[in-house]
Amino acid sequence: MQLEYFTLGVLTFLMTGATCEETEVFAEAGSQAVLPCTFSPLSRFIPSIIWTKANKGTVWRKGKSGLQFWGSSWSQKGTQRVRCPHSQFENGDFSLQINNVREEDGGVYSCRAEHGDRVSEKVVTLRIIEVSVSSSVPTWGSYASISCNVTPWPHRASVQWTLNNIPFVPQTGTASRRETSKRVVKEKATARLTGNWTCVVGYKGKEGRASAAVTVNGIIEPSNDNTKVYAAVGSAVTLPCVFSSSMIPSGSVWEKLKPGFLIKPAPGRLPASFSASSPSSPLPSDKSASLREVRFEDEGKYRCSGAISGQRLTRQMQLVVAKIGSSITSKGSVTLTCHLTDTSEVTHYEWVHVAYDLNGNRSVGSLQKGKTLSINKVSEENRGDLACRFYGKDGMLGNVTHHIPLMSALSGQKSPGGSHNTAVVVGLGFLLLVLLLILAQMYKNHQRRKRIFQYPAMETIVHSVSNEREERERNHEKK
């Protein structure tokens, strides 16, 4: 590189009346590079212009006749990668445009303008910057190497890395003060490395940048170990375990880890309602599991795993179960308490009343903040669902609902609707009692007649005696 600068400098110095300026240009590989070359017009005639590259000869030139020529390496199948816009010639702008720049395009270029016996020259150093990844899609757990390459490399240039437009900080122990180490980021592939990487190079007041996207193959959901999944008692829940779409794991296994084993957790018994497949997604890369009905004792850590190309990938997650405990005081007030098996991520609680009208429309009204809700005056208005919502720093984590069928029965109070229903019930009961008495009397009469009809001779004797008695009484009255 120093030899190239020296050669151009000597040639420029030997030219009569020659002037020379140097410029730095950065361009990302694959983009368009513009090498500036402007001169103040000395006459109405356009000078002859020649662009050359050190050790590569002519790139482009325009003679006094106006004809243009391209170097053999810059024209392929009739298509030229370099050009100078004619519209700017009269303004003294002879900047060179290079399309789809490559690594080999980096180097020192010279723009020389000849105005009769006066020669003006400008030197431009084109530096091609490119970000490369050791493996375009590294596998989770393997080491990934992300490099920033600049051709030619500027000595004592500053290098900074950003990931998704945020300055990247290497993990402890991976950073080095050597200049060469700043060009390369080498870390274990995790979800932390996924995103758009940008290398920013600063040199002599100029700045160049190049970017590359990095995707880590592995378990993409959940993206980190010990992710918490929240569920209410009695509800269904999905434990996510989704691999990259291009990966089909073999020998997938689900385990519930026993508590108390910090270094190497031992597998325990899975819940009774556990299903090792999720009905929501038939994709072969989705190995999520589900619990049909969560119990409070189902809380704890779960682990899913699958083999990819002989390497077993695992992910741990924690199921946090929520429930509402209730208690009734002697005065009829109700106290509801929101219980979670793990509250490490919970920042605050909120109680809301959920009600439905005759049309099925749902309405939600906030009651109060806090883990515990006390209802002193219980009425028909409190009937419905009371939900405890729990929040973290990034928003709501989950909720659990408590259903209240009829709060007025707990307090001994009677609403107008309840009094009306009671009167109807009493009236119906009285009517039923009268009907039963009538039926009983009818049955009694029927039985009595039935007993008499069993002895017809006796009935005849009784009837004759009765007639004779009546006849004697009439005769006695006539005397």
TrEMBL record:
Parts of the chain that traverse the membrane: 423-443
This protein's record includes keyword DNA-binding: no
Stored InterPro entries: Ig-like_dom, Ig-like_dom_sf, Ig-like_fold, Ig/MHC_CS, Ig_sub, Ig_sub2, Ig_V-set
UniProt KW keywords: Immunoglobulin domain, Membrane, Signal, Transmembrane, Transmembrane helix
Annotated GO biological process: interleukin-15-mediated signaling pathway; positive regulation of ERK1 and ERK2 cascade; T cell activation
Signal peptide: 1-20
Source organism, top-level taxon: Eukaryota
Keyword Membrane: yes
Cellular component aspect of the GO annotation: external side of plasma membrane; membrane raft
PANTHER family the UniProt entry points to: MICROFIBRIL-ASSOCIATED GLYCOPROTEIN 3 (PTHR11422:SF12), T-CELL SURFACE GLYCOPROTEIN CD4 (PTHR11422)
UniProt name for this protein: Lymphocyte activation gene 3 protein
Native source organism of the sequence: Cottoperca gobio (Frogmouth)
Gene: lag3
